[in-house]
Please model this.
Amino acid sequence: MDTRVKLDTLFDLEKWSAERLHRVEQALDIWVGRNAPPTLGEPMRYAVLDGGKRLRPLLVMAASEAVAGNAQAALRAACAAELIHAYSLVHDDMPCMDNDVLRRGKPTVHVRFGEAGALLAGDALQALAFELLTPAEEDIPESMQARLCRLLAHAAGSTGMAGGQAIDLASIGVALDENQLRQMHQLKTGALLQCCVMMGVATGEVGAGVRQTLSDYGAALGLAFQVVDDILDVTADSAVLGKTAGKDAQQGKPTYVSVLGLERSRTYAQELLAQAQLALDESGLKDTNALHALAGMVVGRAY
Amino acid sequence: MDTRVKLDTLFDLEKWSAERLHRVEQALDIWVGRNAPPTLGEPMRYAVLDGGKRLRPLLVMAASEAVAGNAQAALRAACAAELIHAYSLVHDDMPCMDNDVLRRGKPTVHVRFGEAGALLAGDALQALAFELLTPAEEDIPESMQARLCRLLAHAAGSTGMAGGQAIDLASIGVALDENQLRQMHQLKTGALLQCCVMMGVATGEVGAGVRQTLSDYGAALGLAFQVVDDILDVTADSAVLGKTAGKDAQQGKPTYVSVLGLERSRTYAQELLAQAQLALDESGLKDTNALHALAGMVVGRAY
Model:
């Protein structure tokens, strides 16, 4: 399979990302937890600020730029997606779920602030995501606000991320085949990543054909992300990963590596990358360098 | 203080409510958890269906009818508000929060489905609330959808319900004065109840003056609800209440009864009822019988 590198050789992902992340970090710092009671605002800010690769915000902004979308809406959608991701990590790390003590190299939220603090902070972060998408006094059409909420709610809920987590929990010690594993991951991780692309698209005006190609890109990238995550869980160490490595295997969770083996998992990740790149080419959009580069980063990352 | 009964003597709240609740229960049955993985859908449905007074849905629908609003939007907002309420109870009952085993006369969700199931079901119910508010193919203007999301997200999050719960948690064993207690309850319970009224209003078209009077009505009703809740916590028994009575006092939580005493709390509830009724009169709206009657029910209820 040809994984043709489609990047403009002049495109500098690091520079592109740094500029966008500067705006995202500033916005999150302003929007998260400042007006909350301190016992809630502190764990909210701890969970969100100063950590994470921010892949989801970058995907929203790259997709928005590809369709020449509304930049203010893209910034809000980027932050909203990150809040949904952050809240899911906070709840997922709790003792009744994965019982993890280390995240992004720091103690997890419930270790630092107690379980009740982690529970409430997660709940408040989810609500804040939808609050960010629906500002009363900004130049974002309310029809666009509604569409962004629709995409995010669907991707976060029982037919998306939360549904995937439930299947994941129910699968501990259960032998899944590749299709079942793919289905679980499409919900658990893929739905939100694909949603980031589609929220970016929703900040602009494109036809159904372009929308479909970017949806395909998002689906392939979302799955690739999880395949690589499973590979890294067995090949990287905790210090590099910033979280406890080898956890999935320990817990008897089915992973791509356990189902396909390490080598076939690596090949599969490359195939998904090629699918994502192909979808971008088929979109006919001009400004897809960042989307191309982000897909490459997802598959090439070391943590 | 004159708590003038403003009800049309011909108005039958029970009949009015039964008709609305029939639609709400049918809608919830269709919308909640059916497409979710079973291990998630079951606790979601258990938490929401066949229980509760449904005060929040009734408030949404009464307010929507008062402003001759969009009935389909009102039904969705009614269900969305109930989902936010239901998720907050599921999480609130968990061991790390109130650790309650009885709710609406049944074992709480975490007792029945485990803590992970309760955590995820609550998370998914919150997302579903925003999904219900943003249907793709229905005759609800997207601008209205965005406004409903804005109201609900604000009322549910760190500057509303979740914020109030955080203050509540931090107040165990702490002596609050009446102002601090009011502030806590305005967030914890009042914000969502007031939001129900304002979502109903947002399904129609009214001027800022009318909106303000209904906002005042919602604020008074929300506070009255909590005062009566605190009274019932010490005067009702668990069987009638459908939850563990006397819990607040046991946990050293400040309540209106502990701050004002029982008699002054009762008087205060009547004063708030009068404020709510007055606000309705000042709205100049004609069809406020249901809103009047619901306020009366909130203050007169035995459970």
Notes: Residues 13-300 of chain B form a domain with the Farnesyl Diphosphate Synthase fold (CATH 1.10.600.10).
